[in-house]
Design brief:
Length: about 625
């Protein structure tokens, strides 16, 4: 059997380094040949090396009859090569004759080959054409042939370099923390790693949260790392079971200290990567409290490019929708349309039907009914519920919501104290804005909008969709159980913990949360009280935090920190909808890598070594 182990010369240049100054020089370039074509007595090809330069045209002329046999063999060899054959190509750079060959790639120079080292062959069953479309099982080919994926990887590396430079300028130390951690109830479902010690398992870290707090007690004043994190949760477009976050922590610091450093980092990244889209950013960045974001936009991550169609409290106008429950408030908004719409009736009706026919937007069990209508038309849903208040959909919508003809008005009651990241009315508003913009009905600002969301509730009601901290009180931490309450809200912990606010802040860009941070609890007594008496973590699970309580009790200084979702940040900066497009080898919606075939089956014999068996 013949194997291809090739001796080949080192490259003397990349295509990015070549220009007219290389004319008449001999070069060797490593890359791929494509678009090989025979035109009369000439063979053309294009050489690409992914170095960032233009493709280079390669031209071989049919040798004269008195030429050496090797010259004719070279000509024939070039003509026979399949597209995307990897080569080491040696030859002379010449001035390009614009009359010969297609005008593509580098228009000033071309290469006349003198020797071709073919470095590998291409499988006969692999057909590569200009229209080839490869699936996730061929991720290597996706990356090779999709310039967007390669550009995202370059962007990822470039931004990492910017982050390191900026954080080092601010006195941060890069420290790696362990991947093999232990199971602790922080909020997300964990990946467990068995050991050969019976009953003992590692857990992959949901974040380096506890280790970085330990570093603050270790005399490291400022820490950062690009941390691998693992969470066994649903895999939406913005989530992966393993992901990267830019993690940082500062001792002797509070929320403003962290936010100031993060704003300097954001400013540097945006100036370098977003160009003119950064021109409207004003520092310090705008701040909205959680309560303001929820009551105005129905979301704790509002897209302020749609800084219109705001939600208003209309309880005074429609008190009967409270159903005599003082814990309910009634809210409404009017969707603001472009003033210059062609066929507005048809466009608005289509948008209304498209959005309100979605099953995920229907009111769920326990929700108050959604009332929706198109202003000054007969199209409505549940509008009869307004009759008791003698609410005239024409007159009152204009007076109280500034609604104009053909604008969609939506009304719904909700609980006064919000629980979670959005209200149902906020979800509907977001869907109408996004779909309306896609249909060119709703306007949206061009420039990026970045905002801090602050003063989150310290606790929230447990949800069946999220494991929380596994406590028995029905409450879980909104951020994580190490988040400090606002100092003035400490008395509420005993009386009404749901009203306590946290020293917790999120960074939101164009409606996408790209990072979250908080001041941490540095007092061991307060930390134990929250875990034991408020969340009511079972005693056995509480013991899993003994190491942290010990560290805090050793004179740990006040500290605060933040983590940026790095994959999400890169996706946003590159205009990509999914983080899978900015990760070299992502998992699919089932948590699998189709190229590698992971996760894979493990045999019974291997399982026995870990005291495990299949059931």
């Amino acid at each position: 059997m013949a194997y291809r182990l090739v001796h080949y010369p080192p490259a003397t240049a990349t295509l990015a380094e070549l220009d007219k100054s290389a004319i008449a020089k001999s070069v060797t370039i490593h890359g791929y040949l494509l678009n090989v074509r025979v035109v009369k007595q000439m063979v053309f090809a294009n050489l690409v090396d992914f170095s960032g330069g233009h493709n280079l045209q390669v031209v071989s002329f049919l040798p004269r009859k008195d030429a050496k046999p090797a010259a004719e063999a070279l000509h024939t060899q070039l003509a026979s090569l399949k597209n995307w054959t990897p080569v080491a190509l040696s030859g002379i750079i010449v001035r390009r004759d614009p009359a010969i060959g297609k005008r593509m790639g580098n228009l000033d120079i071309e290469l006349v080959p003198e020797r071709i080292h073919v470095l590998n062959s291409i499988s006969d069953d692999l057909m590569i054409t200009r229209d080839s479309n490869f699936g996730p099982e061929d991720r290597h080919l996706q990356i090779r042939f999709d310039h967007r994926l390669r550009r995202a990887l370059w962007s990822r590396a470039k931004i990492a370099s910017i982050c390191r430079s900026e954080l080092e300028r601010h006195g941060f130390l890069e420290v790696e923390t362990p991947i093999l951690f232990k199971s602790t109830p922080e909020g997300a479902r964990e990946f467990l790693v068995p050991t050969r010690q019976k009953g003992l398992m590692y857990a992959l870290p949901q974040s380096p949260q506890q280790y970085k707090q330990i570093l603050m007690a270790s005399g490291v004043r400022r820490y950062f790392q690009f941390a691998k994190c693992f969470r066994d949760e649903d895999l939406r477009a913005d989530r992966q079971p393993e992901f990267t976050q830019l993690d940082l922590e500062m001792s002797f610091a509070g929320a403003n200290d962290v936010m100031t450093v993060m704003e300097a980092l954001v400013k540097r990244i945006w100036e370098d990567r977003r160009g003119e889209l950064s021109e409207n950013l004003k520092f310090p960045l705008r701040r909205l409290s959680y309560d303001t974001a929820i009551s105005t936009y129905g979301s704790d991550k509002p897209d302020l490019r749609f800084d219109h169609s705001k939600i208003r409290d209309v309880t005074v106008i429609l008190p009967h929708l409270q159903n005599s429950d003082p814990n309910l408030i009634v809210e409404a908004f009017a969707l603001k349309m472009k003033s210059s719409l062609n066929s507005p009736h048809q466009s608005i009706n289509r948008l209304f039907d498209d959005v309100f026919s979605r099953t995920e937007l229907q009111a769920k069990k326990g929700d108050q009914p959604v009332i929706a209508f198109i202003h000054n038309s007969n199209i409505a849903r549940n509008a009869e519920l307004l009759q008791r208040a003698k609410f005239d959909t024409r007159e009152h919508a204009s007076r109280f919501l500034s609604a104009r003809d053909n604008e969609i008005v939506v009304i719904q009651a909700r609980r006064r104290i919000a629980n979670g990241g959005n209200t149902h009315l906020g979800v509907i508003r977001d869907a109408l804005l996004k779909e309306g913009h896609a249909q060119q009905i709703v306007s949206r600002a061009i420039m990026d909008e970045i905002v801090w969301i602050t003063d989150f509730p310290l606790f929230k009601l447990d949800s069946v969709l999220e494991p929380g901290q596994g406590g028995e009180s029905g409450l879980s931490s909104t951020h994580h159980p190490f988040t400090a309450p606002r100092m003035e809200d400490i008395p509420l912990l005993e009386k009404n913990p749901l009203q306590a606010k946290a020293e917790h802040f999120d960074l939101v860009v164009n409606g996408v949360e790209i990072g979250g941070g908080s001041v941490r609890i540095h007092d061991a007594g307060l930390q134990k009280y929250i875990l034991e008496d408020i969340i009511k973590v079972p005693q056995q699970r509480l013991l899993q935090f003994d190491h942290l309580l010990k560290v805090l009790a050793s004179g740990c200084p006040p500290h605060a920190g933040m983590a940026l979702g790095y994959d999400r940040l890169i996706a946003l900066l590159n205009g990509m909808d999914s983080v899978r497009d900015v990760i070299a080898f992502p998992k699919n919606g089932k948590g699998a890598d189709p190229l590698i075939g992971s996760p894979g089956l493990v045999g019974d014999k291997d399982l026995q070594g870990y005291y495990l068996k299949q059931v």
